[in-house]
Amino acid sequence: MTQQYRVILISGVISVALGFLGGWAASRLAAPPSPEKPTVLRTEGVQLVDQAGKERGRLGLDPQGAACLTLADQNGAPQVSLTAAAQGGASLRVGDDRRRQALVLTVSPQGSEALAIYREGKLCLGLEVQPGGEPGLTLYDKGNRLLDLGLTRQGDPHLSFYGDGPRPALELISKKNGDRSLTLGGKDGVPRVVLGMKQDQKAALGLFDRQGKTRAALLDEPSLILLKNGKPVRTLP
Predict the structure, then answer these.
(1) CB of 206 closer than 8 Å to CB of 219
(2) Is 14 helix (H, G, I), strand (E, B) or coil?
């Protein structure tokens, strides 16, 4: 092998090596940087403060193990509270903690949902869905129940008005099978007057004493029944 041929061969090998190194370096420089792995922050509580160092929010666990998020106004009064109980269920309150003006949303572990609106510390409106799926709407006056609108467990709509007592003073029910009834109750909730119509279009009117015993019944057939102590004393065709 001549001296000139060896020089040419060595020059070719060097050129190939430099070309390979240049291509490798270019590919490394052109490749995008590998993404950094996300960082997970593990802590039992977080405190949110304003520029003056006053606490405006807190995230953590209460003594019962519930996860809680609380947000406060500039005076430190809680305005938003979100809680997830350790045994299941959750609640959200928007408004002051004394419920002078507040909205409370609750989901129970048993499967019911409720929405309550307060004003001046008194319940004004309640919306609830029972575990069986029966919805209900309740209106209040200064915390006293006035009206219920909802469905029975059988899916029949009903409307109830309340007076001084805990039981309805007037109740309307319209069943899906066609039966309808209107009931007027006394102060203790005992029915005093019942007006009804069956699905076969037969109507009836019943009058009751204060103990709930029937005194008179007006029907299609017979026309009128008078009773005393629950026993018929006179019947008119």
Answers:
(1) no
(2) helix
Residues 109 and 160 in one domain: no
Domain end position, chosen among 150, 174, 203: 150
196 has pLDDT over 50: yes
Question: Token pair of 176, please?
Answer: 């899906």
Q: What is the pTM of this model?
A: 0.72
Look over the chain and give the mean of its residue pLDDT values, rounded to a whole number: 83
Return d(Cα 95, Cα 87) in angstroms, integer: 25
Model confidence at 13, pLDDT cuts 50, 70, 90, reads very low
> What is the greatest pairwise CA distance in the chain?
145
Rounded to 5°, angle at Cα 194 from 132 and 159: 35
Domain with 98 in it: 49-150
Report how many domains make up the chain. Answer: 2
Residue that has been written with the tokens 């996300």 in this structure: 38
Give tens-digit pLDDT for 42-58: 877 888 998 888 899 99
Structural contact between residues 49 and 56, judged by C-beta atoms closer than 8 angstroms = yes
The per-residue pLDDT for 104 is 95
